[in-house]
Design goal:
The complex is a heterotrimer of chains A (about 400), B (about 350) and C (about 325). With about 400 residues, chain A is mostly helical. Helix content of chain A is about 70%, strand content about 0%. Among the domains of chain A are: about 55-280, no CATH class; about 360-409, no CATH class. In chain A, strands 1-2 form a two-stranded antiparallel ribbon. In chain A, helix 5 (about 60-85) packs across helix 14. Chain B has about 350 residues and is mainly alpha-helical. Chains A and B meet through helix 8, helix 14, helix 16, helix 17 and helix 18 of A and helix 5, helix 8, helix 9, helix 10 and helix 12 of B.
Chain lengths: ~400, ~350, ~325
């Protein structure tokens, strides 16, 4: 939430706001760093004061924030695939798993390796990217729906592999005792008891990823993604190599998940197959959709909010309800309802606000084109007589025509 | 545009039917023989006792394959008509299994086999008559409420909605029924068996297979011979043109969801009879496999979905027979990957891949 | 767990119930020096070997009042061979930490005692068609079945499928299927009731102890449900923690951090012998109990008002061999 206010103030006259936006656009990296520093400082201070300090101690908050960083990274990565390039990836957790296991192999008693953290961050991301390309290269030629199902399958296969190949992966036990990162300058030592170093590290990784992603979005590649998402045929006609461009989006998404995986493994110190099931892919997808597909800040904020709801709010609700002693509600474990809530949120968002809570302008326009075109068709009376209403029929053609965004080939 | 297979368009539907049946029988026998060889080759059985086992397993494969085929039909028909991967369809099947369980448990009140044949028939028919319309209408209602408003939205929107609906259905079941296995009354006597070739073939397996076949034949007849069925095929072929010809697209799409739901409900009933349990997350894996079946057979193609369902059943059964159950899901997905890469149109698929 | 270790008001934890959860918690509680006593974690890798070492960066803080799967699995093997007099077994596990671990230790002991393992298969809890798996099992003609896992990961489904294919042999499982009577929601006996006549289960602790009847009655009165599975062990853990606290208090710790450390030291003291409801126990340097008792249960269809319940059969004490 803080992210939004500092990035795009919503109050005040429009001209300073426009100027600020123009400035932010020109000096993207500086703006991101400045905003992230502000947010970081705010998030260091907030847990010290009520009401946050009542919920848990500040160290626990930093731990929560550091974990949220993992999901922010994942959401920003998936956003490249879903939000920017318009491809549905339902097995995103697989790349997260690959990044995590890469770090586990490089830093654990199991592999007898203890390699430095920062280079491994890059290696983990690279390995994930290689798998992303290996999966994407053949499948991206297929139509979009097939991609969804292929990634879903891939997301299922990867944990099964890690589970069943127990000679090389310790199977269901997972690889434990993973070494934490060696002490880093400025951050000091990484211990489970002072999550502060992890928190600052996660902020740094998120900031770096954000800068890179914004640069990419603003570059030629970013425009190519836009073009493909809005009209693939036209994009191809204009000389964009659609397969390569989509593959790049897929690889960037995988890379970001790899980053998240390495960081996560170094923090949890254990990786096991059940950490990477479909629920993870689904949660991250929900974060992207709720945040606003295509808007990097929006997605990051969405991920942060959703993660806090999942981890803190629902748990707190249990406690509050227990204290209030409401007879019916005390038996309810609100955590059990989180996926129900996500499901409902996804459907409602798609129906009423497909651009997300913090939309990107471009995406918003795109997603509402269909509404404007179909408008009257949605009325049951008209839709039944589609054949006889020439006006409606024309709109129908246009909207359902070959150039629907996200439609492949 | 994808098309639902149209046997009526073939020059001679009868001879085509006979040819398909012959191929199917040959394939099933071939599976049995291969399994037989593998069992004594790799599984350490003797030649003699591997045969009844192979026969038994083939019957098992036909049962589970029939269940997958029934679910796969819902995927393939919906995809054929509105090009939507209805991720929630597996959960529709799960709800069907729950509803049938509730119905039978509500009437019989216990878990015992019903040996009185007329009573058994009444119970089974009653369960079908009870669950099929409810689940079918639920499916129609979901389409009406959340997919229809998004019919002309960008492709991603209905797909994500379907994923959302899937989670909603799953968690509604979780909330109502809890996270554990729920007992499903196995009223069909499990000790009714026919001795064939040294194996004890359970009559329940035969019942499941025959019921599924009957439903599929009825569907085939409906699609190819009735007016509504032709409207369905026309809409699948070309929505605009069929609308011009006076076909009501919405009605046809609702009908497709109704049929999908009805078949999933039947699959749910036989699931409970055979495996004796239902659980909230049953739909996820079954759905994934059934969808794979639909793709394997050529998505949009009714016969293809049936063939795909049985192939998945055989793969899973083969893995279980040889003691590699934990790899069965892996195998299914590897095969899905290979099919998509090398023959994206599936076994019987028409030119699905070249749209737009 | 991070939240708990960060709050100095917590001086010890009873739990967790689940071995998988323990694996995630121990690194955190260990670094914080917070005493943890589990009433039901039986996974061997939590206390013994390299994997256990990898979980700990500081002196041990984790103890458990149940014995581990390296004892529980073999006890079932011993029971099948010596009491049930079955010499071959078909093993199936659920591919999860607990299930696979205990099935492996069962298999090793069964072979060591000269038994034949016709097949050790594994089926994840998402498996759909157990009937086919049991058809294959039947063809191998085992005299018994051992299931490594819990009810929720397929215990009852496998028992049902085995009955369906006519594989009518003793079905033996670990504490994961000893989860209540036929009247308990989601329990193995509730789901597999009509086919459980040949079922056996184990618990990694004494199945009977002095005053058990009174304990059961008090438990029922307090919580309104039957004391099942490891209820007695949960109480034992509470006794351990209170005992450790009383001894720690005698050292007059100056602040809450010192008290927490004193509780940890007192709780993990390998020389101290606790007198608990379940008997006299010590904990070794790994945190494992000296009480190596595994109790065996069989199915009693008449118990729990005809819904069926586990009936205590005997106990195997590995310490007395």
């Amino acid at each position: 939430m803080t992210a939004m206010t500092s990035a795009r103030p919503t109050t005040g006259p429009s001209s300073p706001r426009a100027r600020l936006q123009a400035f932010a656009h020109l000096h993207r990296s500086a703006t991101i760093i400045a905003s992230m520093v502000l947010i970081t400082v705010a998030m260091i201070l907030l847990p010290q004061v009520p009401p946050l300090s009542f919920i848990q101690r500040s160290d626990a908050w930093y731990d929560t924030f550091a974990n949220a960083g993992v999901f922010i990274l994942l959401a920003m990565g998936l956003n490249v695939v879903v939000g920017l390039a318009g491809l549905l990836d339902l097995g995103y957790a697989a790349f997260f798993a690959i990044g995590s296991y890469t770090y586990a192999y490089s830093n654990s008693p199991f592999s007898h390796q203890n390699l430095p953290f920062l280079p491994m961050l890059a290696v983990g991301a690279a390995v994930a990217a290689v798998f992303g390309i290996a999966l994407g290269a053949p499948t991206l030629r297929l139509r979009g729906d097939y991609l969804a199902i292929m990634t879903l399958g891939f997301g299922e296969i990867v944990p099964i592999m890690f589970l069943n190949l127990d000679k090389w992966t310790e199977g269901t036990n997972g690889i434990g005792g993973i070494f934490r990162p060696e002490p880093l300058p400025l951050l000091g030592e990484f211990t489970p008891l002072s999550p502060f170093a992890y928190y600052i590290l996660s902020v740094m990784i998120v900031t770096l990823a954000m800068i890179l992603l914004y640069r990419m979005q603003d570059s030629r590649i970013g425009r190519a993604w836009n073009a493909i998402r809005e009209d693939e045929l036209a994009a191809a006609a204009n000389g964009i190599n659609t397969v390569t461009t989509k593959l790049l989006a897929f690889a960037i998404g995988a890379t970001t998940a790899g980053f998240a995986g390495v960081f996560n493994a170094s923090k949890l110190t254990i990786v096991s197959p059940e950490q990477f099931l479909f629920a993870v892919s689904f949660s991250v997808l929900a974060m992207v959709i709720l945040g606003g597909m295509g808007n990097i800040w929006g997605v990051a904020a969405g991920a942060f909010v959703v993660y806090l709801i999942q981890i803190v709010l629902l748990k707190q609700l249990n406690g509050i309800v227990e204290n209030l002693n409401v007879p019916f509600l005390t038996k309810v474990n609100f955590l059990d309802y989180q996926y129900l809530l996500f499901g409902i949120a996804l459907v409602l968002m798609m129906l009423f606000r497909p651009e997300g809570l913090f939309p990107s302008q471009r995406r918003r326009r795109e997603l509402h084109i269909a509404d404007e075109l179909e408008g009257p068709i949605d009325e049951p009376g008209v839709i039944g007589s589609m054949g006889e209403t020439p006006g409606a029929d024309e709109t129908f053609n246009e909207a359902a025509g070959e150039d629907v965004p996200g439609h492949d080939r | 545009m994808t098309a639902i297979a149209s046997p009526a368009a073939q020059p001679n539907p009868l001879s085509r039917g006979i040819r398909m049946t012959v191929i199917a029988v040959v394939a099933v026998v071939a599976y049995m023989l291969i399994l037989w060889v593998l069992l004594f080759g790799l599984g350490g059985r003797t030649v003699a006792n591997a045969f009844p086992e192979a026969l038994q397993q083939t019957v098992n494969a036909l049962s589970i394959g029939a269940i997958y085929a029934l679910i796969a039909l819902g995927y393939t028909m919906v995809y054929g008509i509105i090009e939507l991967i209805n991720f929630a369809h597996g959960d529709i099947f799960m709800l069907g299994a729950f509803l049938a369980t509730v119905f039978i448990a509500g009437i019989t009140g216990n878990n015992d086999a019903v040996t009185n044949i007329p009573l058994l028939i009444v119970l089974l028919l009653g369960a079908l008559v009870f669950t099929m319309p409810i689940i079918g209408l639920l499916n129609v209602g979901i389409e009406r409420a959340v997919y229809r408003p998004l019919r002309h939205a960008p492709r991603l929107a209905p797909l994500i909605t379907a994923v959302g609906v899937s989670f909603i259905l799953q968690n509604v079941a979780l909330t109502i029924a809890g996270s554990g296995d729920r007992k499903s009354p196995q009223i069909f006597p499990l000790d009714w068996t026919i001795p064939i070739g040294g194996a004890q073939v359970s009559i329940l397996s035969i019942f499941i297979f025959v019921l599924a076949m009957l439903l599929m034949l009825a569907l085939q007849a409906f699609v190819s011979r009735t007016r509504l069925g032709r409207a369905m095929r026309a809409t699948a072929q070309d929505q605009e043109a069929s609308a011009l010809m006076g076909v009501d697209a919405n009605q046809t799409i609702s009908l497709t969801f109704l049929i999908g739901g009805v078949l999933a409900a039947a699959a749910g009933l036989v699931w409970g009879l055979r495996f004796g349990f239902v659980r909230f997350d049953l739909g996820f894996n079954s759905g994934l496999k059934a969808f794979t079946a639909a793709v394997l057979g050529g998505i949009g193609n009714i016969t293809g979905a049936v063939i795909g369902g049985f192939i998945i059943g055989f793969i899973e059964n083969g893995a279980a027979s040889l003691g590699y159950s934990r790899w069965s899901e892996f195998l299914v997905f590897v095969i899905l990957t290979l099919v998509l890469l090398f023959k994206p149109t599936g076994i019987l698929g028409q030119l699905t891949g070249d749209r737009a | 767990m991070t939240k708990i270790v960060g709050d100095p008001n917590y001086i010890a934890v009873v739990g967790p119930v689940n071995s998988g959860v323990a694996k995630a918690q121990i690194p955190i509680s260990n670094a914080a020096g917070l005493l943890q006593c589990s009433p039901s974690n039986t996974n061997t890798a939590l206390t013994v070997g390299d994997a256990a070492k990898a979980l700990r960066t500081k002196p041990n803080n984790y103890i458990r009042v149940v014995t581990n799967d390296a004892i529980q699995g073999p006890a079932a093997a011993a029971y099948i061979i010596t009491v049930l007099k079955k010499t071959s077994v078909y093993i199936i596990d659920d591919t999860e930490t607990f299930g696979k671990g205990i099935a492996d230790s069962f298999e090793a002991e069964f072979k060591k005692r000269g038994g034949t393992v016709v097949k050790h298969d594994a089926a994840p809890k998402t498996t759909q068609d157990y009937v086919s798996i049991m058809t294959a099992a039947k063809a191998l003609n085992p005299q018994s079945i051992y299931f490594g896992g819990v009810t929720a990961s397929g215990g009852a489904r496998i028992a049902l499928a085995a009955a369906q294919v006519g594989l009518d042999v003793p079905f033996v499982g670990p504490d994961g299927i000893n989860d209540g009577s036929g009247d308990t929601k989601d329990s193995f006996l509730n789901l597999a009731n009509k086919v459980a006549k040949n079922a056996y289960s184990t618990l990694a602790g004494p199945g009977t102890f002095e005053g058990k009847d009174k304990f059961d009655a008090d438990y029922k009165k307090e919580y309104g449900i039957d004391a099942t599975g490891y209820a007695g062990q949960g109480y034992a853990c509470t006794q351990v923690v209170l005992d450790a606290l009383a001894r720690a208090a005698k050292t007059n710790p100056k602040d809450s951090a010192a008290l927490r450390e004193a509780v940890r030291v007192a709780g993990t003291d390998t020389t101290y012998e606790y007198t608990l409801d379940v008997g006299k126990v010590k904990f070794d340097a790994n945190g494992d109990t000296s009480q190596l008792i595994v109790s065996i249960y069989s199915f009693d269809p008449a118990a729990a008002k005809g819904k069926g319940d586990w009936k205590y059969e005997t106990q195997v004490d590995a310490a007395q061999k």
